[in-house]
Amino acid sequence: MTYDRLVCANCAAPVNEGRCQVCRASRQRLQQEGPLAGLSPAALLALLALLVAALALLVHQTA
């Protein structure tokens, strides 16, 4: 999940603004989850579609 849409339960501000200590800790944790953690769901779907297309092309060329 991307943190740009999360709202902090502590200060009721968007987490990506980092207004309180809880926001900053959550933002830091979300950024460290992995290289694809910051991507939006649409970007992940586009990446998946690209990988499927590349695999289909590879299978088609070897057959």
Brief overview, please?
By secondary structure, this protein is mostly helical. The chain is built from two helices and no strands.
Textual characterization of the structure:
With 63 residues, this protein is an all-alpha fold. The chain has one domain (3-62). It contains two helices and no strands. It has helices at residues 21-31, 41-62. The longest helix has 22 residues, at 41-62. It is rod-shaped.
What features would you highlight for this structure?
63 residues, mainly alpha, single chain, 2 helices
Q: How many angstroms separate the termini? A: 39 Å
H and E string = HH
Give the helix tally.
2
**Percent of residues in helical segments?**
40-55%
Low-confidence regions = none
Which overall shape is indicated by the principal axes computed on the Cα atoms?
rod-shaped
- Percent of residues in beta strands? under 5%
Structural class, from secondary structure content?
A: mainly alpha
Largest sheet data: none
- Indicate the mean pLDDT: 83
The whole-angstrom Rg is 18 Å
User: How many domains, in number, for the residues?
Assistant: 1
In total, the number of strands is 0
